[in-house]
Amino acid sequence: MLMREEILFWLREKDPEKLKELWARADRLRAENVGDAVHFRGLIELSSFCRRNCLYCGIRASRPGLTRYRLTREEALSCVQKAVDFGYGTVVIQAGEDPGIDQNFITDLIREIKARSSLIITLSLGERKEEEWIAWKEAGADRYLLRFETSNQILYNAIHPKAPDTVWPNRLDLLRRLREIGYEIGSGVMIGIPGQSIDDLARDIELFQELDLDMIGCGPYLAHPDTPLGKIEQDPDLGKQYGLPATEDPVESSNEMAFKVIALARLVCPSANIPSTTAIATIDGKQGRTSGLSRGANVIMPNLTPMEYRALYEIYPHKAAALETAEQTHAIAIDQVKSIGRFPGSGPGGRKK
Ligand code: 5AD
Question: What is the Å distance from ligand 1's center to 104 Cα?
Answer without folding.
Answer: 27
